[in-house]
Write a structure and sequence with these properties.
The structure is a single chain. With 448 residues, the protein is α/β, with parallel strands linked by helices. 30% of the residues lie in helices and 23% in strands. The protein contains 12 helices and 21 strands. Strands 1, 2, 3, 4, 5, 6 and 16 form a 7-stranded mixed sheet that branches. It has a 5-stranded antiparallel sheet with strand order 17-18-21-20-19, sandwiched between helices. A 4-stranded parallel sheet has the order 10-9-8-14, covered by helices on one side. Helix 3 runs antiparallel to helix 4 (81-105). The longest helix has 25 residues, at 81-105.
Length: 448
């Protein structure tokens, strides 16, 4: 039998790579991992975790505005971006330490440098060191996409949003997906004059259209300017640092910051994939089978670099299933059906299962139940913002196919509701459940 330096070498110490490493080591495998930036990956270091921290701070800003309505008299309110930024970065460093500790506790060798593939079983580090492994796992994730236009270098991506030296007075957010809408809500809550520009005619494609439209309605009420069918031609920067974004229709927007939030692309460049004949698609995503094996039998890939479902919990599930199969000899798999998702916008929205549009393509008899209401909290503070809950049901079987919510606490509600949808519960099962009053979640069992 051929001897290798390690049983498993993982490229990328994000959520999927760290989980795969830990589980493989628990099965007795010798494991090494390489990470060129910071251990923890996009989600922990410069993605969903620090962004959720900013979301909490932005939500607190909204609560401060409502405090007087609840009887609180507050002194002068003042927000300091640098304080928040540094607190968030400090906590990210703490989390990176915990992830590193996980590797150490499981006796996983880690290299803080770039690694490339030099063959089916060989890796070369940036330092020149060559390592062999029985299996290689690519878990490098994805990176923000940027428009290929003149002046693109003046824009920032989500990576840089956590490092801003100061808040801009005016911001243009380019994109219509969840990252764009989350940062737009955060900036707007901090008092930044915010515009969203998307090349399409709606935001949040893939989410329920009515729910997305409600977010636009509420966002406009909070002062966010939405520009649809807006294709950017170029970005200019003057001597004072102010930016002017020119659109193809001749219009323009002046701002102090332009954020490209137009999606993420697999970070598969400069990995040496061709040295092992690892195939990718036209977007650079690594092609894998149902067991996450690439076109090279000894090389696997999990997470965003495969561009299947770009969600951290999915990468974690894929990493664990890979390690359990290959090193634990278990029949482990990942079920991609009914994955709950959330957009931490203001207000947040959440979804699980089929949208109305998707359901109508698959089934002939679809029933839609809705609850359009003003939450008690909003009524008390005299806010016009209305929540919208929507349930998609297959008419013949009464099975709940999807649930889509916008309103406070929607992400927390959808996680448990997704269990019900996953279990195949019917609308009648919701009807038979006694409401928890007073709560927004009770609307789920009161829709008729």
């Amino acid at each position: 039998m051929t001897d290798y330096d390690f049983d498993l070498f993982v490229i990328g110490a994000g959520s999927g790579g760290v989980r795969a490493s830990r589980i493989a080591a628990s099965h007795g495998a010798s494991v090494a991992i390489a990470e060129e930036y910071r251990i923890g990956g996009t989600c922990v270091i410069r993605g969903c975790v620090p962004k959720k921290m900013l979301y909490y701070a932005a939500d607190f800003a909204a609560d401060l505005k409502k405090a007087q309505r609840f009887g609180w008299t507050l002194p002068e309110k003042k927000f300091d971006w640098a304080t928040l930024r540094d607190v968030v970065l400090s906590d990210v460093t703490r989390l990176e330490g915990l992830y590193t500790q996980t590797l150490d506790n499981n006796h996983i060798t880690h290299y803080k440098e770039h690694a490339v593939i030099e063959g089916a079983n060989q890796i070369r580090l940036a330092s020149g060191k060559k390592i062999t492994a029985r299996y290689i796992l690519v878990a490098v994730g994805a990176e923000p996409a940027k428009l290929d236009i003149p002046g693109a270098e003046y824009a920032v991506t989500s990576n840089e949003m956590f490092l801003l030296p100061s808040l801009p007075k005016r911001a243009l957010v380019v994109g219509g997906g969840y990252i764009a809408n989350e940062f737009a809500g955060i900036l707007n809550s901090f008092g930044v004059e915010t515009t969203i520009a998307t090349h399409g005619d709606r935001i949040l494609r893939g989410y329920d259209e009515e729910i997305a439209a409600r977010l636009v309605e509420i966002g406009q009420g909070h002062g966010i300017d939405y520009r649809f069918n807006a294709d950017i031609a170029r970005i200019d920067k003057d001597s004072s640092g102010h930016l002017t974004t020119h659109f193809k229709d001749g219009s323009q927007i002046e701002s102090d910051l332009v954020l490209f939030a137009i999606g993420r692309v697999a970070k598969s460049r400069d990995l040496g994939l061709d040295k092992a004949d690892v195939k990718t698609n036209d977007r650079g995503a690594i092609l894998v089978d149902e067991e996450n094996r690439t076109s090279c039998p000894s090389i696997y890939a999990v997470g965003d670099v495969t561009d299947r479902v770009q969600l951290t919990p999915v990468a974690i599930r894929e990493g664990q299933a890979f390690a359990d199969r290959v090193f634990g000899h278990k029949a482990a798999s990942v079920d991609y059906d009914t994955i709950p998702t959330a957009v931490f916008s203001h207000p947040p929205l959440a979804s699980a299962g089929l949208t109305e549009e998707e359901a109508k393509k698959r089934y002939k008899n679809i029933k839609i139940y809705k609850s359009n209401f003003r939450p008690m909290r909003n009524a008390l503070i005299d806010s016009p913002d209305r929540a919208l809950y929507k349930m998609v049901v297959e008419g013949d079987s009464d099975k709940v196919l999807g649930l889509h919510l916008i309103g406070q606490d929607s992400p927390e509600i959808i996680q448990l509701a997704a269990v019900a949808i996953k279990a195949g519960l019917t609308k009648q099962a919701f009807n038979d459940t006694v409401a928890l009053h007073p709560s927004s979640a009770e609307e789920l069992v009161l829709m008729r």
